Amino acid sequence: MLKRQFLLFSIVGVIGFVVDATTLYVALGVLGANLYSGRVLSYLVAATVTWALNRRYTFSAQRSTQPVSEWGRFLAANAVGGVINYLTYAILVTLVPFAARHPVLGVAAGSLAGLTVNFTLSRTVVFRGRRPDSH
């Protein structure tokens, strides 16, 4: 069960990465955001998408009957992984000129840096409704 959840969480994370990177490039090119504010926006959009997908697929047996509070818990709990994610990104785009020219590399590094923390907190704090073992 744990391995399956981690695999699904990782697949959802890849989708989240695509959403994150796409939103960042739209924010930079269309909205005129800078590398930092664009990333805040892209992270929030990606976090919402990954919450919805994890709720539906990864932790469907454990989801709450109160989705709005669950979404809030997801954002709060994953803020720890989000800070790790964002700091990794910010350090790279600030200190590595190649990453500043290709911010998708910073997004990828940040996503990997926050993966384990986000999975653990999602499993133990966010999706704590019905447990599969309690059927």
What is the helix/strand order?
Answer: HHHHHH
The strand count comes to: 0
Gap between N and C termini, in Å?
15 Å
Q: Please give the radius of gyration in angstroms.
A: 15 Å
Beta-strand fraction estimate? under 5%
Q: Please give the domain count.
A: 1
Q: In one word, what is the shape?
A: elongated
> Main β-sheet: number of strands, strand sense, barrel status?
none
Low-confidence stretches: none
Helix percentage range:
over 70%
Counting helices, strands and paired strands, the structural category is mainly alpha
Tally of individual helices: 6
Roughly what is the average pLDDT, rounded to an integer? 89
Describe the 3D structure.
With 135 residues, this protein is mainly alpha-helical. It is built from 6 helices and no strands. It has helices at residues 2-29, 35-58, 67-77, 79-95, 97-101, 104-126. α1 (2-29) packs antiparallel against α2 (35-58), α2 packs antiparallel against α4 (79-95) and α3 (67-77) crosses α6 (104-126). The longest helix is centred in the N-terminal third of the chain and has 28 residues, at 2-29. The mean pLDDT is 89.
Annotation keywords:
mainly alpha; 135 residues
Walk me through the topology.
Elements: H1 2-29, H2 35-58, H3 67-77, H4 79-95, H5 97-101, H6 104-126
Helix pairs in contact: 1-2, 1-6, 2-4, 3-6, 4-6
Provide a compact summary of the structure:
This protein is mainly α. It has one domain (2-130).
